[in-house]
Amino acid sequence: MKVDHDDEVPPAGPAGGASAAAGGEPARPARTGRGRGGIAPPSWFAVLFLLPALLLLGFLVVYPIVYSVIRSFFDASGGFAGLDNYIGVFQGHDNLVAVRNTAIWVVVAPSLVTIVGLIFAVLTERVRWATVFKLVVFMPMAISFLASGVIFRLVYEQDPDKGVANAAMVAVHDTFAADASYPGAGPRTGDKQPVRAEGGAVTVTAPVAAGQSALVPLVRVKAEHLPKDAEPAAAPPAAKAGEVTGTVWFDFTKGGGGALNQPNAGESGLPGVTVQAKQGDIVAGEATTRADGTFTISGLRAGTFTVTVPPETFTAAYGGAEWLGGTLITPAIIGSYLWVWAGFAMVLIAAGLAAIPRDALEAARVDGGTEWQVFRRVTIPLLAPVLMVVLVTLVINVLKVFDLVFIIGGGDPNASVLALRMWTESFGGGNDQGSGSAIAVLLFLLVVPAMLFNIRRLRQERS
Questions:
Q1: Residue 220 carries which DSSP code?
Q2: How many domains is the chain built from?
Q3: Do 351 and 228 sit in the same domain of this protein?
Q4: Distance between CA 285 and CA 301 in Å, rounded?
Q5: Is the dihedral of CA 255, 256, 258, 263 positive or negative?
Q6: Hey, is 307 helix, strand or coil?
């Protein structure tokens, strides 16, 4: 058969063909159903390898979530309760405290950790021992929350001899406030005693005129409250014009003997006691007792005065803050959370700082920007994606915080959060798994938007 050359199809190839003549791309070989080049395994083969992981994920994650959602609509006895469990989360004092504390955690803890991590990351770029510092700050991440809770439970002990926080506060306080304190001390009871207890203070019964002396005998002074520099009690020094002198001492002789209401051999003076000379409610003068308990109030005008030892002397010595009390317990636990997670934030932010183009920073400095301006207007905007990822990750973590609150709080309702409340309602004595499941579902719904936001940010960075 004769073939017309005008009807011949040009051979396909990189140097010929209609598409090549028209400037188009050369034709690509068609893919087979078995993947590229026909050598990749089929899809069902990959699913076969993923099946064990999918089954495990379904058993440990999907099934508990579905079961919790279903269980949240039933009460403790198994009867259908509808939305009552969800409404009950926002009713009752303990539940409302848990909701309030969770809101405080979500707002304060992630922001504080991110700010501290940012400061550490920026400062460590300017020191030679940055690696050592990062290692020390990151080290708490290697400790479990349970162990961290035990550590800070000891740190926040009320007794300054045991709690590190209060020991430091007492040391600073005693450095600037040297007044002695003798808690529990006071005068003898009786109508004919030279001093009397009055409104927490100890007052000399008879008025004292300028140029006279006054004796202030006290009893019930505990041995541990006697200062080491206390000396044997001495008689009051002679008073001059415009002065009132006297002695404040522990009126007790070991083994008995001695005259009452008089300084005797073997009795100890009480140093560091503030003594005031008052006319009505006005303090005309004051002095502090010496090591032997004697004092001299000078600069007084003519007239009579009431010699008084103020109530502060007989109250308990300063013992620091009540870290685990109703007011400070949540901030104290957040402080322990900061100690654990500051290293995590620092490492991620430091990685973001290392990725910032140095040309942008140098250009800003060349243009006359100060270090603060460069940090605020260049570094922070370039770090914004990293800071947002760190912040959202911490928000997710904070919504689930349980260990620290459980260990440090010790079951105090003032420290409760929703995650702890969920455990308490279900397994910690409440025996109401319906209410606990409702709280779990609410926490899940709160966590999901933050997780989706983080996933979206990661996809944007990869694209």
A1: -
A2: 2
A3: no
A4: 10
A5: positive
A6: strand
The last residue of one of the domains, among 314, 346, 375, is: 314
pLDDT digits (tens, 9 = 90+) for 122-154: 888 888 888 888 889 999 998 888 999 999 999
Query: What predicted TM-score, i.e. pTM, was given to this entire model?
Result: 0.72
Same-domain check for residues 333 and 308: no
**Max Cα-Cα span within the chain:** 150
Beta strand 244-250 with 213-218 is parallel
Give the pairing of strands 195-198 and 208-209.
unpaired
Instruction: Clarify whether residues 308 and 385 are in a common domain.
Output: no
Q: Over 60: is that where the pLDDT of 26 sits?
A: no
Both 345 and 295 in one domain: the answer is: no
Least confident of 10-19, 68-77, 78-87, 281-290: 10-19
Final residue before a domain boundary, out of 258, 280, 314: 314
Owning domain of residue 230: 195-314
- For residues 435 and 173, give the distance between their C-alpha atoms in angstroms, rounded to a whole number: 47
Contact (Cβ atoms closer than 8 angstroms) between residue 289 and residue 260: no
CATH of the domain at 351: 1.10.3720.10
* Encoded amino acid at 233, one letter: A
Nearest CA to 418 out of 434, 433, 432, 438 is that of 438
H-helix or E-strand spanning residue 315 = none
Answer whether 244's CB lies under 8 Å from 277's CB.
Answer: yes
High-pLDDT (> 70) share of the chain, % = 90
Distance CA 443, CA 102 (A): 10
The tokens of 289 are what? 């007792």
How far apart are alpha carbons 262 and 252 in whole angstroms?
A: 10
Angle, helices 433-462/380-399, rounded to nearest 10 degrees: 160
Instruction: Please report the DSSP string for 339-383 in residue order.
Output: HHHHHHHHHHHHHHHHHS-HHHHHHHHHTT--HHHHIIIIIHHHH
Q: How far apart are CA 228 and CA 271, in angstroms?
A: 10
H or E, element range at 168: helix 164-176
**DSSP states of 41-86:** PPHHHHHHHHHHHHHHHIIIIIHHHHHHHHHTTB-TTS-B-TTHHH
Tell me if 348 sits within 8 A of 390, measured CB to CB: yes
Alpha carbon distances (Å) from 389 to 142, 207, 386: 21, 73, 5
Within a domain: 339: yes
Q: Give phi and psi for 439, each to the nearest 5.
A: -65, -40
Structure tokens belonging to residue 74: 């039933």
